[in-house]
Amino acid sequence: MSRASTATLTHSPNSPPLDFSPSPSPSPPPARVFPGLERPPSAPSLLVNWIARRVHGWTWQAFSISMGTGAVHITLSEVKHQSSAFTRLQIAFYFIDMVLFLLNTSTLLLQALLYPRQARRLVMDPTNGLYVPLIALSFATIILGTINYGHVGPRFIYILFWVYVALSLFLCMSMLTIWFNKPHDMSQFNPTCAFLIFPMMLTGVVAFNVLDVMDASDVKSLGVLLVGYFFQGLGSFVTSCYICIYFYRIMATGFLDGHQANGAFVNVGPPGFTGLALINLGSHAQGILPAHALVSPLAGEVWYGASVLGGLMLFGLAVFLFVFSALPYWFKVDKQLHSILDCWALTFPNVGWISTLHVLGDTLHIPGFYVVHDVMVVLMCLTWLTLSVFTVLAFWRGEIFMARGEEVVRDSLLGAIKGHHRGQHQDQDQVGVEEGRNHHPRPPGAPRMRANFTLHRLSLRRA
């Protein structure tokens, strides 16, 4: 007798009958393309265009490359001994800066049109959103290059100045509102948060460059001078709060490591640029204030003397922060290609105190400042060359500015598919409600029933 029949004979009559048929093998779960949407069994894998992945993966941090390029032509323009070949080199960097600016702007605009979900995600993200104001900083380097190399009149430069002020106000106030709308952990503070206020702080630097091509007797020069002082003071005092938070952070957790080690150099920017702006704005105040008979005949000289004193003190702070950030840098920084964009913080934030070296040499007539300035300019160019090589390599390998195919599909199709399904469900709900109202009119005085309850009752009746 077989084992199956034996089991049947010994089976208790009060128990449910035993089933010896082979159980079906469990079917594998359906493949998930993205949450809420299942791939059909016969659906082929989706192929995403290489350009689409690049556009989707582009970030606002790309402007750090154009800012670093702008840092090169700005520092080169301040070398004491110039030549025609040297000027052509600066113009080449200036055009590269403009090309990178247009490339980044057009790519991000294309991303906003094709993948609005990704564009909004970048702006609202507490980390990626910090780099949105970099577009204004990159625009500032183009303005400075236009003043140095462009054959344009003072009126056009004056218009560019107010365009920059408006752009800075819009970006800074918008991003500050978005970023401070949520709480943030102090133990995870990164000095790159100062980018939220950097464009307004850099207004003073743009202002004194604009004043270089304007007449001191023009009333517009007075407006540029006062606006430059106003926003430079605003930005420098706010960024000083970020520097205090930075020291609190490193006292609690030690030196910044990983990709955040690059952000330590961002602290060098505020005191360096503020010292540079104060000295140059004070120099222009010498001619502008007496020309308009403001305050007193000696007001311009007083402003200039106070600006040189304050600029020298801030220059010392900037040099200290640079050395303090450079000492542990090599042992703390993340040496992976995917973090190469963070390394561009080695360039632009250091422009302020490097340029102040040249200004102090002119003001105090100390040749040693020129020597140190030239050495730092060479190091700036070598840093730019090194970062450019590794950035191109990271771009070629897809370490940066490259989204995954499923991310592109999700942001390009998911919204449309969900919207289509939502529209179908709304149509079905509307039809069900109308049917419920036609077949089951509400008696006078009876309470109004909800649409979802009507649909549920209709489904039960049809079943």
TrEMBL record:
Residue intervals passing through the bilayer: 91-110, 130-149, 156-180, 192-211, 223-248, 302-331, 343-360, 375-396
Going by the UniProt record, its keywords in alphabetical order are: Membrane, Transmembrane, Transmembrane helix
Q: Where is the composition biased (Pro residues)?
A: 23-32
Domain of life, per the record?
A: Eukaryota
How would you describe this protein's topology in the membrane?
Answer: Multi-pass membrane protein
The subcellular localization recorded is: Membrane
What protein am I looking at? Malic acid transport protein
Q: What is the source species? A: Bondarzewia mesenterica
Q: What is the lineage of its organism?
A: Eukaryota, Fungi, Dikarya, Basidiomycota, Agaricomycotina
